[in-house]
Fold:
Amino acid sequence: MKSVVILISGRGSNLRAILDAHLPARIAAVISNKPDAAGLEFARKHGIATEVVDHRLHAAREDFDRALMQAIDAHAPDLVVLAGFMRVLTEGFVQHYAGRMINIHPSLLPAFPGLHTHRQAIEAGVKIHGCTVHFVTPTVDHGPIIVQAAVPVHQDDTPQTLAARVLEQEHRIFPAAIRWFLDGRLHVTPAGAVNVAGLPALNEALRSPSE
Ligand code: GRF
Structure:
């Protein structure tokens, strides 16, 4: 069985969705850069090993990344999942996990990389917003796109109401993307696109009842 390490920084609702999906993998550890991340408690309750690598205890970004890499590699994971992990990672770190680290970002990339994506979307006046699961590459919030989900932007949306609508979709597509990885379905083309083996049938399974 493949093993997965999940990195978080906070609430951990994506972590929860991943655990609730009962994926065919061993969740080797949940690691947080923040000692008070609520997701840690949830992981512990599920009997999953948790660790904290506190970024504030490391003066340089490189030192933090080295410590984090050691903590992750102790579990020799097949996949590293960034589930609301809010630290920018150094290029060396990202290269070390090339092709086996994925992230969820709350926008339809390449639109709105970075922070405050829901506010950015409202201010830009877009009518469709959403979320993206992608392989992590050294440029933040770039990298081959595995799956996206879109939601409408309503005229009276606030960043909070829009975030809630997007989050529901995050919880659908992130576990699905991880499952596809575990099943060996993801192939990155030389041009940097992701081909998903058997996609039509998978899309059918992903569709929400209202669609
Ligand atoms: C999610 O919106 C994720 O896309 C973003 O940070 C948020 C984390 O939420 N990167 P949670 O900790 O999974 O609840």
Notes: The mean pLDDT is 96. The pocket of 5-O-phosphono-beta-D-ribofuranosylamine is lined by residues 8, 10-14, 39, 83-84, 104-106, 167, 170 (CB under 6 Å). The helical segments are 13-20, 38-45, 61-73, 91-96, 117-124, 159-182, 199-206. The longest strand covers residues 25-32.
